[in-house]
Specification:
The protein is an alpha/beta fold. It has two domains: about 80 residues, Methyltransferase, Methionine Synthase (B12-binding Domains), Chain A, domain 1 (Orthogonal Bundle), CATH 1.10.1240.10; about 120 residues, Rossmann fold. The protein is built from nine helices and five strands. The chain has a five-stranded parallel sheet, with helices on both faces. Helix 5 links the parallel strand 1 and strand 2. Helix 1 runs antiparallel to helix 2, helix 5 crosses helix 9 and helix 6 packs across helix 7.
Length: about 220
Amino acid sequence: MSPQAAWSSVQLEALQMLEQAIIECDADRAREMAQEVLRQNIDPVEAMRVALTRSAETVHEKFDSGEYFLPHLVLAGDAMTAAGEVLEQAIPKSLLQARKVVVIGTVEADLHSVGKNIVAMMLRSGGFEVHDLGVDVKTRAFIDTAKSANADIIACSSLLTTTMPYQRELIEDLQAAKLRDRFKVMVGGGPVTPQWADRIGADGYGRDASEAIAVARRLVGME
């Protein structure tokens, strides 16, 4: 039986209220409801997988339909981060033993953060050490941080077709610096496809957070 099937009506309501707070771009309320989720003895990793993933999907659907605009995505990302910080603190230390290092961010000229935030939090809960550079990250910042953190993976997200070329630029700059073999490069984001990942020479592609985690684990030999 899945963990969700065993949740009480009170637990389900707490998760739904957390989800709604993120959708409504209310960071304070999201933080409060994340605390309530923990008070209801809901596993923090499951809370991330359920409430945060569903809320991100809803926010992106509203953006795609024209109901939400870029500021909504930024504010929803802030709300998700606020909730995630509360939930992450409750994850047992045994699950947070860093084995591999990931540098993650949204590429230059792109301010979308919701999906990237989910992937970052899921990577942490899955045992990775994560350096989240945020949004509008220049290629040089990805590379410099990866070098200083001795990263295993660089993960770059793009939610605009106009910013996808920065994913290719990252790989080209790694090649020019003779660093390509040092780091695995993962790409993702709404307009990104497996074909694009192959074309630019990326090592992995994640359609969503769950797939991204599986790919990351495979790339570093954790599966």
